[in-house]
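One thing: can you check what follows?
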Amino acid sequence: MGNTAASWKNATKKLSDGYEKLTDTILKHKKIAIPLLYVILIAIPFLGPSQYFIRVLCLIGVYSILTLSLNLIAGYMGQTSMGHAALYCLGGYFSALLGSNLGMPFWITIFFGILGGALGGLILGLSTMRLSGSYLAVITLAFAEVVEMVILNWNDVTNGPLGVRNIPRPEIFGIELTTANGGFYWLVIVLVTISVLVSMCVVNSKFGRAVRAIKEDELAAKLMGVHTAAYKVKTIVLSGAMAGLAGAFYASMNRYIDANTFNFDVSMTILCIVIFGGLGSIPGMIIGSTLLIAFPEVLRSLADYRFVVYGLLLIFMMRFRSQGLLGGLSKKPYKLPKGVLRPGEQDQASLGKQVK
């Protein structure tokens, strides 16, 4: 029995080490890997895929944006949100109502969708700026329920349970973008790229360093002069704006939305992807969305049991790789410029010179 356990432990360690080497190799050659990925993505429509396949890719893009937005809260700020679909919903409804009722073009309503998500983030942020941990999780869940009830009962504005229909699609030079002509596919690639760049800019800025300091030790961040409450609110507002962007895109692509489109299952799916992909990892959000959104579509017979499968995957991840697929990369030593040594390395280098 002991030998079996030891061999199993060695096998899992070898598998983990091999996976670490693979991810390190990809990250080391990211200047080649990223352009190659874009070449593959650009080539997909020219291979003649079905409209259904293109729609699945668009859904992966939508959830990539959503997980990138939640990653700002959960991955970098270290807070749990269980009602992220509410911000997604506000973005979708702001854009859909203006387009359907007032006839505004998509290129204008998408900005109102971003504004709607940001406004929801501002309300949520101001309500929770003194909270953290389980208290914040419960408040976000309650906020999502409030938004859903307002959508269902404010019939004069939201059309209640009947939802919003005939949402206009975007047009470029008089050509309507659809999944059939690949227009939505190209658009979602652009939106995901923008979301990735925004996330990178935030993380690598003074703002991002302050947010990560709150995650590591909020009290220490306060003592260092970080206005933690303000940074929490700003992070949730930015996250809401990105979720609103995804909502506006999805509403236009689907052409119909109702309150059930943004239910609790959506919030749990987003949270599962963030944990599965790796908290604080931007590439992890893309890979996690690809795997967990494509899975129910590939295995349609198991689509009704996707949360059972998601749960088993998360249990497996917590047991063998608790940081997620690409999580924990931020814990690796920071790569210093060429010629710059760390304190310990400097002592060794000076000792080597003295020996010589």
